[in-house]
Amino acid sequence: MTTTLATDRQDERLQSREGLRGAITDVIERARGGDLGVIPVVVGLVVIWAVLQVLNPVFLSSTNLVNLTLESAAVGVIALGIVCVLLVGEIDLSVGSVSGLSGAVLAVLFVDKGLPVWAAILAAVALSAAIGWVYAQLFNRFGVPSFVITLAGLLAFLGLQLYVLGTKGSINLPFDSALVNFAQLAFVPQWLSYTFAVVAAAGLFASGHLHARERRRAGLSARTTSMLAVRSIALLAVLTFVVWYLGQTRGVGWMFVLFVAMVLVMHYLLSRTKWGRSVYAVGGNVEAARRAGINVRAVYTSVFMLCSSFAAVGGILAAARLAAANQSSGAGDVNLNAIAAAVIGGTSLFGGRGTAFGALLGMIVIQSISSGLTLLNLDSSIRFVVTGVVLLLAVVVDSIARKSRTSHGRA
Amino acid sequence: MSATQQKDSVLSLRGINKTFGAVAALTDIDLDVAAGQVVAVVGDNGAGKSTLVKVLSGVHSPDSGTITFDSKTVDIPSPAAAHRLGIATVFQDLALCENLNVIQNLFLGQELRPLRLNEVAMETRSWELLRQLSAKIPSVRVPVASLSGGQRQTVAIARSLLGDPKIIILDEPTAALGVAQTAEVLNLVERLRENGLGVIMISHNMADVKAVADTVAVLRLGRNNGVFDVNDVSVEDIIAAITGATDNVVSQRRARRKEGLS
């Protein structure tokens, strides 16, 4: 034992693990204890990609992967909202309908009424935020279970969507509009993509380094600079490879960048702000959160409004991608895919556990399945079955991990 | 002595009533706590101790009665309001979030730098508080789910000290603790008193009450049943007040044992 031990390392029962090998041992130990993190989803992704690549060599081609990233953005944004509601231990089943409704509102205001596109987007998002507010009031004031409220919302807002679209049933967005252009044709120039990758890696290193320095000054243990460097270089390598590979054809779409940016913002809000803490607290133990002075109702309200707003943004992106809003926008498997993406990404259905990055990873899994099965010329019946099975597997993994956490005293 | 207590009491309750449906949980409760005074509130199961704690901590609002804090009449409509006044509570069920780690639980609801959490300052302060309590917690970065009952109690008590409160309410603080930790908590209670805080301690343990309390307030079936100076009262008298009679199964048993011994 050295003489100057960090404040948080003084207990003799603590095993100290240093360096890269120590970090790996930690991860293995935690996984054994049921704290799986992103391991299942990454393993699942590798398996799914391998199988689909064997079945159809086009699957891992640059063209298809570019398509996959673009297709994943819309539902991925919706899944991000679902992560937030699941974190407080509630559910929103109406995100599909709300996304469809907001697509319809956007189309009507933009095309039929001739409003500027930003005004139409703002109106659609505001309407959806209001829907989330109504859900939260029903939940807070009357204590109706959220799945009942939002199940009613699912039907009601599907009805409203059909009403807004009127007898035509479908409204096309002009191809030369900025919105459609953004969703279909806007790609990041290759040099800028590489810059993003470098900035991300440098940012990770810088924030980690500053944090470590602050911790050392306060007399706490901290990650070593070499560990931080390894982590940043790994990220840089992965991102550069992705950018290079996607750059073989069209490159990285701006819509996907928008999705990733939203994930990063949500990650920050959830992990580094007081609001995020209170979301996890409410999901872990509502009564404890209330007694700690957290305004639980406000947390629920913010989360429901956020989820509906994300659903609206997702609906707008979907409409832009399709260049149309129609009666089937947001119908079918959108709801389930968004929820499945969140759960596959490691968000617990029991509340209090999950990350924003889960939505990104989970969405890529869901979209891979969907895209791979489409490439195989299998119709939606089989796609539904396979997606259902994968969702079930994810929930089973979640439940097993939960049991393991309990028996290892981690839950 | 009681006259001076009345004068500089930080917290006074007068005529507090609280009913749940047909059940009168609290009837006409009076209670005074002065700065630097430890008041033990004792009573049998269902005597209204926990309800009283919840009224003071803003979880339940009283149906009638007045609460005076710092010689001002106040309402405590919410736990946040209790925090602001300077009333901190350690609940019997501890009210910790099992999915959050020790630091996150300690600072829950009062995080430093809301928009960019100051993790380092919070961790340093957490260690200070825990060291002050001589806590045996190996790491503050583990979820509370992995701590033992005694460790959780320590976390809960440490949390109550964060907001520099004037009154601390401890709901059965030693019920789940080992011998050494009980002594630590009792030491801590005395330290709180030396620092001029008012302490309300709910307890079933007469030894703890005799050891640290200045005053014992007895509740019985939701009513005041006597306030005693701890130096002038025997454990038998307290138990008599708790059970509501001098002739009861407890005192009979004690009498029998005394006879048997002599």
UniProtKB/TrEMBL annotation, chain A:
Main localization, broad class: membrane
InterPro entries named among the record's database cross-references: ABC_transp_permease
TM segment ranges: 38-59, 65-88, 117-135, 147-166, 186-207, 228-246, 252-270, 298-322, 334-350, 357-376, 382-401
Provenance organism: Streptosporangium pseudovulgare
Listed name of the protein: Xylose transport system permease protein XylH
Compartments in which it is found: Cell membrane
Keyword terms of this UniProt record: Cell inner membrane, Cell membrane, Membrane, Sugar transport, Transmembrane, Transmembrane helix, Transport
Role, per record: Part of the binding-protein-dependent transport system for D-xylose. Probably responsible for the translocation of the substrate across the membrane.
Pfam families tied to this protein: BPD_transp_2
Lineage top rank: taxon: Bacteria
Automatic annotation (TrEMBL), chain B:
Single GO term (MF): ATP binding
Coiled-coil ranges per UniProt: none
Keyword ATP-binding in record: yes
Keywords of the record: ATP-binding, Nucleotide-binding
SUPFAM superfamilies to which the protein is assigned, alphabetical: P-loop containing nucleoside triphosphate hydrolases
Pfam families found in the cross-reference section: ABC_tran
Annotated ABC transporter domain residues: 11-246
UniProt entry tagged with the keyword Membrane: no
InterPro entries in the cross-refs: AAA+_ATPase, ABC_carbohydrate_import_ATPase, ABC_transporter-like_ATP-bd, P-loop_NTPase
Protein name: ABC transporter ATP-binding protein
Organism of this sequence: Streptosporangium pseudovulgare
